[in-house]
Write a structure and sequence with these properties.
Keywords: Cell membrane, Membrane, Transmembrane, Transmembrane helix, Transport. GO terms for molecular function: gluconate transmembrane transporter activity. With 437 residues, the protein is an all-alpha fold. The chain is built from 20 helices and no strands. It is globular and about 65 Å long.
Length: 437
């Protein structure tokens, strides 16, 4: 009976978000309370479970996500992202324009949230299209594939960051494995697959022709690259050095402090604030206004993540999570594949990669301890599944369609297939890594 209740709760969540157009935060709250009622949690303890889940989930995430949003907004507004793009285009040359855009999209995508990154790189794509008279989809899809991969696979993006916390994974190793998976996923879904799309006719809207800063307004190349990549550099260095070098106890404590994702993001933001903010002549008051605007961009994401944690806590307190874990242990499908499938199904139904990832995590969290699965790979498996088959219920689908001025059919051929290829290649990579690590 408990499994039937869970099924209808998840189905209800999907219907509320996709068919009822209910805000995901409200939908999660309604479903969490309903699940608590039907699963037998005492009336006076249901809201306590929801509140505990929200608090526990957000407590370790707010710092990372908010600081990440601030850094991304600064990278965009300061012209650092534009500088990175210009350097990459000059380095790769006309012959390898696609690869220049792929690398640029990947670098820019690390600190930027997907929606911000999309709006930022599209003018760059269109400037190349207009300048070199090349097919828009053929040129643009590889860059957007790089953005999608960073969003689904790599911390400090919201979903992978939240999954790392829920599964007690290691942020540094998840990032390292994610980078390994990112390369083939981007190459296959981007430059290789886009060769089949040269015949798609697309006339990008004139509205989206680029508005750029002048060269004298841009930060230096070194400051731009370091500001965007510093979180990745610090996470990888502080994760790998203790495993490669025997450190004295005092240094171990220092590395443990610096390797905390919140500390990493604070250091990166402080560096960027000075190097591409104050050093560029920006006033502290204006920088703080930029950071305040960035928080507005992620407030909705934080609410969704928190409310998903509320549902997870209700499932845990009801005891159903342990029952599910016990049953799944008897299923002859590998836990990593199962996680991918559940995330993909929810993604197809709901349209949100974040909702798909967090809902799957709530269902499968107890499996980790019992199945002895590498938690870092579980994060990546769910992340890959949560990108599968983006279609008409996903805002990203419509962003791509409208910006590139495409038909529904051509958007399915290009955008939907690109996202699905990333998901499948990501799963294959996770399963191969599972044989090694």
């Amino acid at each position: 009976m408990s499994f039937i209740i869970i099924f209808f709760c998840i189905a209800g969540l999907i219907l509320l978000i996709s068919w009822g157009k209910i805000n995901p935060f409200l939908a999660f709250l309604v479903v969490s309370i309903t699940a608590g009622l039907f699963l037998g949690i005492p009336f006076n303890k249901i809201m306590a479970s929801v509140q505990k889940g929200i608090g526990d989930t957000l407590g370790s995430l707010v710092i990372i996500i908010v600081l990440g949003a601030m850094l991304g907004k600064l990278v965009a507004d300061s012209g650092a992202a534009q500088k990175i793009a210009a350097v990459m285009m000059k380095s790769f040359g006309t012959k390898y324009i696609q690869w220049a855009l792929v690398v640029t999209g990947f670098i820019i995508g690390i600190p930027l949230f997907y929606g911000v990154g999309f709006v930022l790189v599209v003018p760059l794509i269109f400037s190349v299209v207009y300048q070199y008279k090349l097919p828009a989809v053929y040129i643009g899809l590889p860059m957007l594939a790089a953005l999608s991969v960073t969003f689904g696979f790599l911390p400090p993006h919201p979903s992978p960051t939240a999954l790392v916390v829920q599964f007690n994974a290691n942020m540094g190793f998840t990032l390292l494995y994610g980078l390994i998976l990112s390369v083939p996923a981007i190459i296959i879904a981007g430059p290789i697959y886009s060769r089949a799309l040269k015949n798609i006719h697309s006339v990008p809207l004139q509205t989206f022709q680029p508005h750029t800063l002048t060269d004298d307004q841009l930060p230096s190349t070194a400051n731009s690259f370091i500001s965007a990549l510093l979180p990745v550099i610090l996470l990888m260095v502080t994760t790998l050095i203790p495993h490669l070098v025997e450190l004295p106890p005092q240094l171990q404590q220092i590395f443990a402090f610096i390797s905390e994702p919140g500390t990493v993001m604070l250091i990166a933001l402080a560096f960027a604030t000075y190097k591409i903010g104050i050093q560029q002549g920006k006033k502290m008051k204006d920088l703080m206004a930029t950071y305040a605007d960035s928080v507005k961009d992620v407030a909705g994401i934080l609410l969704i993540i928190g409310s998903a944690g509320g549902l997870k806590q209700v499932l845990t307190d009801s005891g159903i999570s342990q029952q599910i874990a016990g049953q799944l242990n008897n299923v002859s499908i590998h836990p990593l594949l199962l996680a991918w499938l559940i995330a993909a199904i929810i993604r197809i139904c709901v349209g949100s990669a974040t909702v798909a990832g967090l809902t799957t995590a709530g269902i499968l969290a107890p499996v980790i301890a019992q199945a002895h699965v590498n938690p870092n790979l579980m994060v990546l498996s769910i992340g890959a599944g949560s990108l599968a088959c983006s279609h008409v219920n996903d805002s990203g689908f419509w962003l791509f369609k409208e910006y590139f001025n495409l038909s529904i059919k051509d958007t399915l051929r290009s955008w939907t297939m690109m996202e699905t290829i990333i998901a499948v290649v990501g799963l294959i990579g996770v399963m191969l890594l599972n044989l090694i690590v």
